[in-house]
Structure formats: structure tokens, C-alpha cells
Here is the input.
Amino acid sequence: MNTLYPLLVNGLLEGSRIGIAGLGFALIFFTTRELHFAYGAALAGAGYLFFQLFGRLAWPGWLTVVVVLAASAAGGVAVKVVLYRPLRDHLAILLFSFGLAIVLENVYHVVFGPSDVLPPITFLDRVAELPGPGLTLVRYIDFAGFAAFVVATALLLVVLERSRVGAAIQAVMRDEGMARLVGIRTGQIAVLVYATGSLLGGISGIVHVTRTGVRPDSGFEVVLFAFIVTLLAGGRIGRVALWALVIGVVRALVAWRLPTELSTLLVFVAMLAYLVARAPSPGRRRLQARPVVATGSPS
Amino acid sequence: MRLTKGITTRALATTAAAGLATALAVPAALAAADQPASTPAPAGDEVVIGWINPLSGSAATFGELSRDAIEIALEEINADGGVLGAPLRVEYQDNEFRTDQSVTAAEQLADSGVRIIITAGSAVVFALDPVAERRDLLLANVGAQSPELVETASTYSFIPMSSAEVTRLAELATERLGAESVAIVNVDNDYGEDSADAFQAAFEELGGEVVAREIHDVGATDMRTQLIKVREAQPDAVLIASNVAEVGHVARQARELGIEAELLGITFALSPDNFEIAGDAMNGMHGVAVTFREDTSEQSAAFAEAYEAVAGTAPTVYAATSYDAVHILADAIEEVGSDDPAAVAEYLMALEDYPGVLGPTTFTEERAVDIPIFEWAIVDGEIEPWEE
Here is the structure.
């Protein structure tokens, strides 16, 4: 039986999960230079909220999704405005976000307990067989998660490239000081990206809880990979999505021929090698977090 | 010193300290609030047993159920006059299921005069055994089942080793299921590896073939990559030698991926968490386990009732081993007149048919209890005897 094809499909799904989280994390970081490590814990919170509303209270799925995404966006804005903004310094925000993540994990532990929670099996867990070599079964909910990733990536790129607010965001990404000088309200832009990034985190939380469940420390691994793809992307949102898929595919290819337990290890080895190869040498431009895409000036 | 515009070194340090202090203080406060109320008596007025298990992190479930059961035992023992005329107390230490923190906790307990420590987790027990030997401690294992534990020097196991379970399971898989090929999915720790090795040895000795072995990390929730490879091997049965919750994820994802092979499990499979995660995917699983059944005896029924009143759920085998361990250790200390590890160990090795809640309990030469093993099948979400 052919395993390469089903492993690659599984790898793409895994990559899309990393990608959704990465898009939100990267959008916040590229724009504000703030490493919002509590993003993972917030994402887990979205998963818990989905589980409570859909799994426990039997709310309609569409309503649950709307509420979870709205709550995620609102939560992100609250974190930015109430907690991070008074700190002002990026290092202070980084340290605070670690503490906030730990606090949230412990709150989840007390409220929900330490065990994994999954929504009950529904029609969304039904599988469809993909055409192709080897038996490849994918759940409807996983199709939806992948579609959400593709749509989110496309929408972000379109908004950043073609809209006035996207141009403003890119201006802030490139040079916040200059953007402020030309009249862009950078404070509002920061709030906007926190809202948008956190909304994407909410999507990631829903995907996560429906695929493998959620526990208090679920967000840590997600934010770790989100950080990695952000680092690899070098300031470009599109590359965040691309690197996420690359990671998923590489893990699948490694697992195809090598012991599965080596897949994550070798991905990290490859990543380190890439970063070393990309490191600046005399005469080369420094590794930068700023985008290099040229856009029209904000109107 | 001004670092950047608007912030000084002092402000940065204050913010960082506040953030770190919050991160450290809140979990400690929450854990402390979660501790059972206990009034520490002055030294010499109580007998103290140590306890090192997870109360936070991915394995916290185990620690909480063990602690709940121990508190029931302590209440009974102290209502009956305590031990050596003094209250018996357990000093709980959270190790987050980490070996480094376990060693630190053991050293701290030994420094405070504790001679007996209740613990679990094969990796933790292996890490603590040298400490126990050096500090003259007795380790009371209530959950670790790695067959290699019989090689340790200071560990007395109140739960049978998994080698006994998996050897019997290999026989049953061959005799009752007609399985000629098995794939093994195990957790990447001593328990998983040693259980898988023991099963493979037993199954191959019976003429069977292990056609795939896949490993997953401790606490993993997505084993689809491993299961896709297992499916390719087309086994007659799949043994899941994983921890609580991991078994549930494997079972659920195996059925999702169209694996129709028989699923086999051992003790950890019967935890309610797996049923919460896997739902109907657990149906049809067969296995063997050291398990708690409240209809075993009057003591079992009484324990089940008391535990449900405290924890709100039926006791698992680990709650039962913890409960029995405290009672047996209390009897041992009372009988030998002290908590001297050598004297207590001698008492344990002479223990025969102790009426524990898990059934008649006898220590074997390998310093592990011999308790009846339950052969089970899961039918419509219920655990039933595995009929021939």
C-alpha cells in the first residue's frame, strides 16, 4: 500500500494548522515587533471556549465559531491595550507575555482540569476518501481547516497588497516612526493587527481542538512552531504560509522513509542549517524582520 | 541608566520582575489553594511519608487522583489512632512529571527526615532509585510498570509490572483473536518501550510476528503519521502501550484512518479519560489490566463510595494502588515500630494475601505485588470480562 501520498496529505494538513497560527503571530510581530508568546495560551482558550459552547452546551456550530472568533479578537485587543501598551518596551512585553501564558495555563488547569478535552464526534468527523494512490482518508473538519488556512492567507495578502489599510500596515511594518510622521495612526494599526492576529489564533484554536483536543498547555507547541515559521519568513506574510506547508511536508517525507520520531528532529536540524546559511556575511544585508515588498504609498 | 526612550533599566527590571513573579507566584498559589487542608504538627508528633508525583503539567491527572485516594486513606488511618500513636501525614511534592524536579524533591524530603516516598512513573522511579539508595530511602511505586524496575534497588511496587500483563495479552491475542501479526504503538518512555519489548518477545515466542513498531512522544495528541504507517503493515491487531489519554487519541485516530485491526490495550487503556476522548472508537478493544473493581470486596465498595464522594468520579487503578499503599505502609510502620526503610521492606516482602481494594495482595521476590489480572473487552462503552 502506498504511504507517501497519505503521509503528504497529512503533512499538508499539519502544515496548514501551523500556518494559520503562524499567520496571526507573524502579523502581530511584523507590525509591532512584539513577541506575543501568550498567543498560544490564548489559542488554547479559544479551543476551550469552542468545546464548552459546541461540545457541552450544544450550541449551533456556526454560532459557536462566530462567538469564539469574536472573543479571540476582543481578547487580543484587550491584551494589547490594557496589558502591553503600558509596558512600552518590547523586552518587557516579551517577559510579560511569558508570564501571562503561564498564568492562563494554570487558570485553564484549575477551571477545566488537566485532561484533554475534545468535542464529541459529529458528522464533521466523517471521513472522505481522496482519489489517488494509497488509502487517504480526511475528515470534513480537516478540509474546512485547510480551506480556512488557504482563505486566510489569500485574504491577508490581498488586503496587505490592495487595500488602504493594508498599505498602512505595511508602512508600519517597514518603519513605524516614518509611518507616524506621515500621519498613519500607528496605535490603531497595532490594535487592528492584534485583533486580526488573535482572530486567526481563534481559528487555529478551533482547528486544534477539533483535530486533537485541547489541554492547558496545548498552546505552547503551537506558538513554538508559529514563532519558527515567523522567523523563517523574513518579514513576508506569504512566506509564513509557505514555510508552514514546507515544515508539514518535510516531516511527512522524513516519516515516509525514516523512523517517525526523527521527523521533528530533522525539521529542526534543517531549519538551523537554513538559518546559518542565511546568516549575514560581510557585505550581505542583515537578517531582517521587515518586509521588502514595495507597495504604493498609503493614501 | 536609560536604555531606550521612555524606559530606564530600573523600570525594565521592575516590569520583568513583576512579570516573572506573577508567573511563578500564581501557579504556586493555585497549587497551594488546591492542596488538601493539613495542619503540620511539630516534628516528632507525627509520622510523615513523602509523595512525589505530578500535580501540574500533562500528567497532573494522575497526581490528583492519587492524592485524593491518599487523603481518604489518611482520614481512615488517623481516625483509627494514627501510626505509632501519632497522626500520619503525607508531604506532597509536585514534580511536573520531570525527573530533575523529582530528584530535587526527594533530596528535600530526605533532608526533612522522610524515609519513605510514594511515587510513580517509570522514568521518575529510575531517576529516584540512586537517590533512594544513597539516602537510605524506600520508594513505594504506585503507578510505574516498566519491567526493568525489578532491577532497581530501593523500589517496592504496589502495582504489577507490565511484563506480566503483556505476556498474558500475547497469549490471549493468539488464542482468542487468532492474531498472527501485530503492530505496536507505544509511548516513548521506559514504560512504553519496555512493555512493547516484553510483548514482542512473548508474541514472537508464540509464533506471531510484530510487523510494525511506532513511537510517539509523551503527551502527544496527534499520532496520524504513525498510524498511516501502521495501516500499511496490515496487522491483525494493534497493541497500544501508551499513557492515559494517549491511548484514547490512538484509538480514535486509528478508526478515523480506517484501521480495522483489533485494538489491544493494557492497564492505562481503561482510564475514563480515554473514553472521553475516543468515544465509540474504544468499542471492540480487548486487553488485560490491573484494574479496580468495586465489586471485588466490601473494602472495595467502601473505597469506591468514599472516592466518588471526594473526586466525583469512580476510582481508577492508580487511586486504588495509592490507597492500598498508604494503608499497607501504615500497617508496616506500626508493626515494625518505625519508618526505617529496611524494616518496612522486610515487612512488605513477608506480606501475603493482604485484603487490599485491588484484591488479595502479596509481594513477590521481584518486589512487586501479585494482584489478579483482569481480562477485559469494551462493549458499547462498558468494560466487561473478555469471554473466551
Notes: The CA atoms of residues 231 and 259 of chain B lie 6 Å apart.
